[in-house]
Amino acid sequence: MRGTTALVCLSLAVPVSAQDDPGFLGTLVLTGGKRDLTFGTALPRTVVGEEEIQDRQASTVAQVIDSVPGVTLVNGTTPQGSGINIRGFGANTTYGSDQKIAIQIDGASLGSEELYRIGTQLFTDPLLYKNVEVIRGTIGSFAYGSGIVGGVVKLETKNASDFTGGVPGFGGSQTFEYSSNGDGWVSSTNLAWMPVEGAEFLLNYSWREQGDLKAGDGTTIGNSSFETPSFLAKGKFTFGQDDAYSLTFSHSQTEADDKDVPYDQFQTTAGNFGRVDRLTDTKQTSLEYRFNPANDLIDLRANLSYADQKIDTDYIDGSSPFQGGMSVAAFCADPFFGVICADNRYETTKLTISNRALFDSGRVAHDMLAGVEGIRKDRLNAASAPGGTDRRFAVFMVDEMTIGQFTVTPALRYENSRIESAVPLAGVPDSYDSDALMGGLAVAYDFGNGLSVFGSGAYTEGLPLIDDLSASGTSQRRLAMTEKSHTFEVGAEYSGTGVFAPGDSLTMRGNLYQTKLWDITSYTVAGSTGTDLDGVTSEGIELEASYGLANGFYADLAGHLGEGTEYAPSGASATWRNSPADRVQLTLGKKWNDHLDLSWEVVHTTDKRDALGAGLPDSTVHNLRATWRPKHDWLTETEVRFGIENLLDEDYVSHLSSPSRKAPGRTFKVSLTKAF
Predict the structure, then answer these.
(1) Average pLDDT in the 447-472 region?
(2) In 3D, which of 22, 18, 19, 17 has the Cα closest to residue 303?
């Protein structure tokens, strides 16, 4: 940890309403800067709101959250193959995911499939969402799944009431955006209608188009063009006495039809896997029932969701040296090379029923979340890998107990699974059963003067994956065991106003973490084809801060410093190949009420490595942003945004990217949004 032994953190004291969501998520507090921060919890949690999503003018959801400490993008400049790595776990440049990050859109689970060299982990458009929440580590994961080591990414789509002001009538918005690098265009239309109180409907259609990007040295970044239409339909009914009942339906879809593109979306194999025509279609649907009467013991939610990710691939004859003299039919039927031709489809159906209860037992105040969950995931059968079904059942409980100035939060999850192959597997079982009990404990103490300290410990197990189904002995071993990890964290926060000047506010929060992974089934020794690593450790320090003056000046800071080690069965050790780089991001800005916001962002990254493990030079990138809300009558409800990304045209390769896939050079962006 480079000698780091202690951390003192500060946090702002202007609380808004507590998060209306299960779990011990703390209170979201307003800051003087662009991002509101979490206060009063041991949970490392960051929320990127709708205004920041729009200010960043990102082309992918991954780019929206790349400023969160410990988050690394893999292929994040395009939706196809876009991956998120948190604290060294999640997306990687072989499979695109390692199942150690959970991703949810309105409660629907997606993006955890081990798709070989195309792993589309989070394929959707950022303009569909009102906020993106990142929960780092394991301690906050037990309501969302098992085996979560990196964290949870939760996306919430927009609501009609966001546009109508919560009153009956029509509303909406239109956004147009242009970016100079790649000649990119975006159109996003929202149409909202509340016919009566208690009923609301929203339609969104977004079209995003981008040509090939240019790097800082003027070279073309291959396979960086895309065209993605996206669609969102959402409806909500609220009824009953005191609006105790609600029913919410949400459906979103994003599609891309790519012609003559590399099969390897990460571009780490020099084109050996050839070229393909690829159609990617991702859908998420959820239906949530909520019963929240005037009773502290009842806040019942039942969420039924369905996620469908379909990737249809047509191999281009002769584009891969692996084909040799084989016909296309023989090549695609090959049990190893056939992966290049294979269609992929994952369908995940999930039902989660939970209740949040507030009650006292003696001197102890409880905020308890308890629930059950059933999951069914189906994978399409292919010549290169058998399809099958993964059925899971889980129960979970999170109880935030407040005793004076102490808050103690135990969390438990039990999960069992049954994996069945769709076809007989020669010489090995066709089905596997497993289960695990996992949990954690978080403790916080509030000194009463704005300073609080916290710590947590968590243990989780990753149950076997449907993607490991095959007739090989290695896969059989992986399906017969669970992958285990524990994470320990300590940190502190302080909240205060009038800290350095009258009317100022300071928000600062940070924590140290250490994660250990063993009984590994998802990572192999470098250079081997079947020898699993013996263990992985990852440790670091994360920091988030915001300072604001009464005159509108603000400064935001986010940083991560850490290291990781991987261990082979032989006892040899090396730097953990997926560990995040050291990074600090500083934003300086000035707000003139709600009229104008100007900011300058500097991002410095060191200790970088490419996807092949080679070291990369440090990089420093400057970004400028401006948001203008004119006050003229005919421009009311209009927002104009300007941005310059990579102002100095820095020529560099991003951490964990292919050495041939450079980061985009200087890009001018402008967007116009009109609400009606």
Answers:
(1) 90
(2) 22
